[in-house]
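HOLO CASE FILE
Compound: 2-(4-methyl-thiazol-5-yl)-ethanol
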Amino acid sequence: MLGRKLVIDYSLYLVTGRELLPPGKDYYESLEESLKDGHVTVVQLREKNIDSGEFLEIAEKSLKICDKYRVPMLINDNLSVALALPERVGLHIGQTDIPVQQARKILGPNRHLGLSVHNVEQAEAAVDLDIVDYVGVGPVYGTKSKAGIEEKDVLGPRGASRILQALEKVPKRLPCVLIGGLNEKTAAGTLFGAVCDSNWPDGIAVISAIVAHPTPSVPAANLAKIVKSFKKAFDSHAKEFGAGEPPFTSYDIEKNTINKIAELLRFHRASQYGPPLIQTLTSHVSSTLSANIALAFSSSPIMSHQEAEAEDLGKVTGAVVLNIGTIGDEARRGMRAVGGAANRGGKPVVLDPVGVGASSFRKGVVEEIMNHTQITLLKGNAAELSAISGLEDIQSRGVDSGSGTLKDPVNLVVSMACKEKCLVLLTGKEDYLSNGQHAVKVSNGHELLGRITGSGCALGVVVAASMAAACNFTKHNKLPTTHLGSFMVHSDTNWLFIGALMGVLSMNIASELAAERSDVKGSGTFIPALIDELAAMTPEKIVERAKFGFV
Ligand SMILES: Nc1ncnc2c1ncn2[C@@H]1O[C@H](COP(=O)(O)OP(=O)(O)OP(=O)(O)O)[C@@H](O)[C@H]1O
Ligand SMILES: Cc1ncsc1CCO
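Model generated. Tokens follow.
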């Protein structure tokens, strides 16, 4: 690598866009307001359709403002404008601009040079060349400032994460900035979502969220806070566990687990917060059973998938379930709105990717959901989780567990939890739950659960209700938490994990008690008995019957 002088903090990278200014707003005034509080860490001047003379004039005036606030400046595309400015002004180029090797040759070794990359191949090429100082990775979402972006080119956090993985190969880390559609709503989930095995984004590049705002210092401060929280949570976590591990601080999760579960169920049953509202977007097959199961488990179901009411409901929900069982266009749109509202409110989100391995349509839907929403818990049977993880040892033919057995279920849940940065619950005869550091195996349950339709879907609702209870519990006991999208980093113990485990145990122990009843003759009579036994579930029954262990 060449020794360059300028060291840039990429945390909040402002890209200018005079065409996006609110009516009547002066460009220089907007730039000064954006920088004055010290939140923006670097500025890129982006000017389209003007000649170099005018660009240089704007750049010279902009540089005065940047210098005043000690913020480094970069020029977009225009090599001659960059060269006409002092060497401390860098250049950012795209894939269709002057080839990067030539740009470096002309700029010399010391001028800062950035490159946009849109896919893994371009990222690998940038790494191999070893002549740029950082890359911009995007577009993460479709954006107003770059018309003509097609859906297929939009990376989403998961696509960005794949590019970060490719960048990781460089001996000296190549910094990277996420760009495209980032704003106060998308920033946190995107930063976390783009983290891969041992690489992470250095910051976010923002255009319209700042430039189009009448008071740009406000979004600048909010966005800087989000990046700072990400870095704080992520850095301390990464030091301890490595970049790809999810940011949970559950060091003492194995201690007194059963007592914690009992304490949480006691709190949930008597909660002064009232039954948590569980918004469930689910199949028409599972809807009624899931709603009754939620009621039996001291929760309040609402089975709405309407986009139009997502924001209103988001203010009052305790948790949401996104179940793709019989998903159509309306629910697909609804999931985007409901998932976004839940993430912004810090509410747990359960994803049930029903039958995901059965069709490419379902695969696409799940990929889409995981891109627009930060999932708190991913729940699936062996075929479903294998399909998502890319394992091919189990072929999915439908929506039920079937007879698939996995060679290494513990490794599957642990690695998926690390990769997807969420809790992962694998269901079947035995259930496995992991947060990426710990994995627990639950052996409770009854085979009748496998002989009724929608038991897995209903379990998703019970787990969501249990995690909503965990959130109320931490709030009630004033346990310190950090809200970052739907991530909740608990400094004491991971109550979301405890909550999810409480849900799994409650449902499975209820199934055993139901199956033992003399009035249960088969799967038909089992369903009402299961609802009754879940309603009658107590901390004592869980303590007495729970069969689980850390594996
Ligand atoms: N043979 C079994 N023995 C014990 N418990 C079981 C058995 N089969 C399923 N279960 C339990 O049933 C619940 C649902 O898991 P399952 O894997 O059947 O979900 P699913 O395939 O998603 O179901 P569905 O698609 O019908 O909703 C889990 O709690 C699981 O432990
Ligand atoms: C049978 C069935 N078909 C689509 S969803 C569903 C319920 C189990 O998930």
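CASE NOTES: The mean pLDDT is 89. The longest strand covers residues 317-323.
CLOSED: yes
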